Amino acid sequence: MKRAKNIAIIVAAGKGERMQSNLPKQFLMLNNHPILWHTLKPFLECSDIHEIILAVPKLYIEDCQNTIIQPLLNHYPFTNHAQKIRCISGGDYRQESVYLGLQAIEKPASVVVIHDGVRPFVTPKQISLLIHQTQKKKAVILGIAPRDTIKKVDNNGYITATIDRNLMQMAQTPQAFSYELIRTAHDLGRQNKIEATDDAMLVERSGQKVFVAPGHPLNIKITTPEDLILSKGIIEAWPPEENTN
Ligand code: CTP
Ligand code: MG
């Protein structure tokens, strides 16, 4: 019998509208390499990941293969080189891109790690830790506590409540799940027409518990031009010291 693999699904098929750039933001350059190049690297370096499924816009598949994946594989002598990167065409929504990634998985699969293609600041160690936690808990995401006071407002912008921020977490990716659990959650989500902005939400709606493990403040999602400015600062100090992981 084949050993069940841990699979990463990296979704990079968005248009990046909030970035207001002609080129989708995952392909913008950061320190001489496309953002997606930086995102893929720690997954290739992580010995607990056995295969990567990468969703990109259909138009960019060939380009991505030639200018990101091949140079990355050629350039770095990764120890775990049995792993492959398989490029697929993404969907119209993030949820759809993940769903297509799940469809592309060849069974048996153990843990599925889902990650945004525009979050380049994770380490192989964080990914391994997440996988190990998921082997016990089945559904684990990274999150960080908000640093600002959180207000709830009405449609006119007036505060209606101050929320206890000790009970709040800002969800990041990677988010990891046992294969069966995330397949079921996505299938149910589609059946019930749930529109989710992350995968944990679909698992929550399917009635399963999701654990939030400590994420990292540097693990930003590059969403707007301001995030691009921040990312240029972060890359200067990257990778972080081991103990800041
Ligand atoms: N994503 C995807 N397929 C889509 C939409 C989004 O794979 N149809 C990916 C993006 O490429 C990104 C991640 O999901 O890596 C997080 O989404 P977001 O930051 O919202 O990216 P975009 O949808 O590209 O940006 P925007 O919402 O500003 O258009
Ligand atoms: Mg989006």
Whole-number tally of structural domains: 1
Low-confidence stretches: none
> Could you tell me the radius of gyration in angstroms?
18 Å
Q: Give the overall average pLDDT.
A: 94
What's the CATH H-level homologous superfamily? Spore Coat Polysaccharide Biosynthesis Protein SpsA, Chain A
Shape: globular
Describe the structure in your own words.
- This protein is of the alpha/beta class and 245 residues long.
- The chain has one domain: Spore Coat Polysaccharide Biosynthesis Protein SpsA, Chain A (Alpha-Beta Complex).
- It contains 7 helices and 11 strands.
- The strands form 3 sheets. The chain has a 7-stranded mixed beta sheet, sandwiched between helices.
- Helix 5 (179-191) packs across helix 6 (199-205).
- The mean pLDDT is 94.
- The structure holds cytidine-5'-triphosphate and magnesium ion (MG).
- The site of magnesium ion has 2 residues, from loops.
- Cytidine-5'-triphosphate binds at residues 11-18, 26, 55, 90-94, 97, 116-118, 221, 223.
Overview features:
245 residues, alpha/beta, Spore Coat Polysaccharide Biosynthesis Protein SpsA, Chain A, two-stranded antiparallel ribbon, 7 helices, binds cytidine-5'-triphosphate, binds magnesium ion
Q: Would you kindly provide a brief summary of this structure?
A:
The chain has one domain: Spore Coat Polysaccharide Biosynthesis Protein SpsA, Chain A. The chain contains seven helices and eleven strands. The chain has helices at 35-45, 61-75, 94-103, 124-137, 179-191, 199-205, 225-236, and strands spanning 5-11, 29-30, 33-34, 51-56, 84-89, 109-116, 139-144, 150-153, 159-163, 170-178, 211-214.
